[in-house]
Specification:
The chain is mainly alpha-helical. The protein has helices at 17-30, 43-50, 54-66, 85-98, 102-124, 127-142, 147-164, 168-180, 182-188, 192-210, 214-231, and strands spanning 70-73, 77-80. It is built from eleven helices and two strands; from the N terminus they run αααββαααααααα. Strand 1 (70-73) and strand 2 (77-80) form a beta hairpin.
């Protein structure tokens, strides 16, 4: 990009120059002015447009590199990454690994979002999707003594429920959270008693969806995630009575 090109950025007047520079670059990415794989303007151009020092600009860029929004290539400049969701989730995933207390928040988020997805899926799931879900659930039951195989089947079950909700944004959110929770789910899957509990819950979820009962489906999913959270030793809010049959809950 030449120095005579139209300016993308505004001069910074705030004292928190590094944060503001990072914010402006991030906003350009969000707005689509900077696309995945695109090179940023040269350091000279950015310094002139943002009116910050080179050191401040470099600190701002390193902040966005740490968030996997940007990547620097030696001798070639700085580029927007692919912005792949899995890539963008890595920093948050690392934070969760460092701070186990956030695991409760992660499970609560799953309970809220996935139970909502199950409620929508009950009214939108097709016969073919229901048959596929029942097939995957049966497959999970068959490998209940194989932790890794069961983990994969569990992921497929939850993914199938989310897909049946037919809401792309909700599906994206569920996928992002599922990626963050993969390590914790792998840990839980090592317990045979937890796998048996999950198998029972999966059966209830499928039954609720088959009945096309939105409330029952929400409760079945919320109850499942609450019980799995308990198996982790987490203290979670009761979205439903976990001891009640989700199919009979109001």
């Amino acid at each position: 990009m030449s120095s005579g090109s139209e300016a993308l950025f505004s001069p910074i007047v705030r004292t928190a120059a590094r944060q503001e520079a990072a914010r402006q670059i991030r906003e350009m990415i969000l707005a689509g002015a900077l696309h995945p794989g695109q090179a940023l303007p040269s350091e000279r151009e950015l310094v002139a447009q943002l009116r910050v020092s080179r050191s401040v600009l470099r600190e701002a860029i390193q902040t966005l590199v740490a968030l996997n929004l940007l990547v620097t290539r030696q001798g070639a400049g700085t580029y927007v990454t692919s912005l792949d969701p899995a890539l963008l989730m890595q920093p948050l995933h690392f934070a969760i690994q460092l701070n186990k207390s956030t695991l409760s928040s992660l499970f609560e988020a799953r309970a809220v979002i996935e139970s909502a997805a199950a409620g929508l899926a009950a009214t939108r799931i097709t016969d073919d999707q229901l048959s596929r879900l029942a097939e995957v659930t049966a497959g999970a039951s068959a490998v209940v003594d194989d932790p890794e195989a069961f983990l994969l089947a569990d992921y497929q079950i939850h993914d199938a429920v989310t897909a049946a909700a037919a809401n792309p944004l909700l599906s994206h959110m569920c996928t992002a959270i599922a990626t963050l929770s993969l390590d914790s789910r792998r840990l839980t899957a090592q317990s045979r008693s937890t796998r048996l509990l999950a198998r029972e819950d999966h059966t209830r979820i499928v039954a609720a969806l088959r009945s096309r009962d939105s409330a029952a489906s929400r409760n079945a999913m919320a109850s499942h995630l609450w019980r799995i959270g308990q198996a982790h030793g987490l203290k979670l809010s009761h979205f439903v009575d976990a001891d009640a049959d989700p199919l009979t809950l109001p």
